Amino acid sequence: MADFRVHARLRGSDEEETVKPAYMTLPPSIGVPSIAPSCFSCFDYTNGLADVVVGYMGAPFDAKRDEMTTAPLMVTVRNERGRRMLDTAVASGRVEILQRGGVGGRELPSTGDRRSITVKTVQGDSMVKTLLEPDFVAGNQGAPPFVANILADVIARTLPTGLEFARYSIDYHYIRNQLFCDDRMGTRATRHVPSYARAICEPYAEDVEALKNPPPPEPSPLWYLVFGGRFQR
């Protein structure tokens, strides 16, 4: 969810409980095994062929108050059939429209700038590191809960919100998946990755290239201090 927490509803014998552990408590090693290769090579993150799509990405979210079952959702209507489906749900009382988003979501709330946080997310993602760094081994232990809770709260306050958060999520997933396709498919990735996904990834081209070909680490001043005199003799 937008609060960087995993929302799960636990059902016991007599009652239900919703838990929201911070995402960082999960061990990084579960990332790649838990996602199928077909998901890594998919570029229909927005379900573009559906008549109507319901999701949380572009909707407002109050980290202190909302849960996955109570937070507002964003509905994308793509055609007349989708419009009829939404109108029927509203007329039956199953859906309440809190705010209309206008064409392309122009009237939806949107704050912040997704660019820098998208790059940082890609840089720190264990799944991306697995693709780009042959010697990288993801850890088997997540952050301690008290540390992860602090990190989740700080990140949630600095992230873009509303529609800009949705764009951030799409940008990150398309960059990650393009890296996967380039790694697994080679030249065939040119035909597989759709043009609209490449257009979304294009503004990040320099950052992605820097990830693929990182510069060699510069020697520290201590290195020169210890060995510099020997080289001069």
From TrEMBL:
> Which InterPro entries does the annotation name?
FRHB/FDHB/HCAR-like, FrhB_FdhB_C
Q: State the protein's name.
A: Coenzyme F420 hydrogenase/dehydrogenase beta subunit C-terminal domain-containing protein
Q: Which PANTHER family match?
A: 7-HYDROXYMETHYL CHLOROPHYLL A REDUCTASE, CHLOROPLASTIC
Q: Where does the Coenzyme F420 hydrogenase/dehydrogenase beta subunit C-terminal domain start and stop, copy by copy?
A: 34-97
Q: Which Pfam families match?
A: FrhB_FdhB_C (PF04432)
State which residue ranges cross the membrane: none
- GO molecular function, one example? oxidoreductase activity, acting on CH or CH2 groups, with an iron-sulfur protein as acceptor
